[in-house]
Amino acid sequence: MPSTDSDERILLAYFSRPGENYWNGGRRTLDTGNTEVLAGLISDRIDCDVVRIEPADPYSDSYDDTVARNVREQNGDARPDIAGGLPDLAQYDTVLLGSPIWNVQPPMIMATFAEAVDLSGKPVLPFVTYAVSGLGSTESFYRDLDTGATLGEGLAVRGEEVRDSGAGTDVDQWLRAAGLL
């Protein structure tokens, strides 16, 4: 794993969902979720600890069932439980938060995570995979949580393109702009 130019400690935390996904107007079943692929591209380039955010109640493999659940969670401002423990962020200088974009924003489990850990004063750089809306409302989503974090520039990669060579170029540019590569 390459290292950053400093002694900066970086945590990469992400949520990803395999199974049936939206794909170029249709559906495609993925063994590995798009955001997990993107998290791997990032963690292959920098020295960071990686934490996968797992829901206590896993999302369905069915795209339609997941969409319906997500709408309920967004409408109810839900905070889905996370399986397992949460990392202590005291040892980290920067946090990279990854997720898909569902209905124009990160899934509500990302609010659960962001509110449960201490992000006060830390730079937080979001990275997302999407089908239509790019970063969507990612910036306002995290700002509205009022975690005390300093929100940095986000990275958005279309899910259908995350496995293409161009995604690595986008990751490199984003990491360089953030001073992490």
What do these coordinates show?
Helices cover 29% and strands 22% of the residues. The protein has helices at residues 34-43, 63-75, 108-116, 138-144, 165-177, and strands at 10-14, 19-23, 26-30, 49-52, 94-100, 123-130, 150-151, 155-158. The chain has a single domain (10-178), classed as Flavodoxin domain (Rossmann fold). The mean pLDDT is 95.
Task: Give a quick summary of the entry.
The protein is of the alpha/beta class and 181 residues long. Helix content is 29%, strand content 22%. The protein has five helices and eight strands.
- Beta-strand percentage? 15-25%
Distance between the termini: 12 Å
Order of helices and strands: EEEHEHEHEHEEH
CATH topology: Rossmann fold
Low-confidence regions: none
Structural class: alpha/beta
- CATH class category name: Alpha Beta
Count of all domains? 1
By DSSP (H or I, 4+ residues per run), the number of helices equals 5
CATH architectural grouping:
3-Layer(aba) Sandwich
Quaternary state, please? single chain
Largest sheet: 6 strands, parallel
Overall mean pLDDT: 95
Whole-angstrom Rg:
15 Å
Assigned CATH superfamily:
Flavodoxin domain
